[in-house]
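re: the backbone from monday

yeah here it is again, tokenized this time
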């Protein structure tokens, strides 16, 4: 069962920029509460979206997975 929450929360993101097929890879982000989250924490999926006009990141979806 998936428990999905749709959001539009501005976040601060630490990102690695490289070349190749995935030139921008987020590593971790900080929510407004101050909580820092690794992008691949193993228990929850996150969807981050980058606005290239405003140069801002938003957390748009969070999903916990239960077996």
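seq for it, each position gets an aa:
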């Amino acid at each position: 069962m998936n428990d999905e929450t749709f959001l539009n929360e501005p976040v601060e993101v630490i990102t690695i920029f490289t070349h190749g097929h995935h030139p921008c890879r987020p590593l971790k982000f900080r929510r407004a509460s101050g909580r820092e989250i690794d992008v691949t924490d193993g228990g929850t999926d996150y969807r981050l979206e980058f606005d290239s006009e405003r140069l801002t990141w938003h957390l748009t979806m969070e999903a916990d997975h239960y077996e």
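The first strand starts at residue 2 and ends at 17. Strands lie at 2-17, 24-30, 36-38, 44-51, 56-65.
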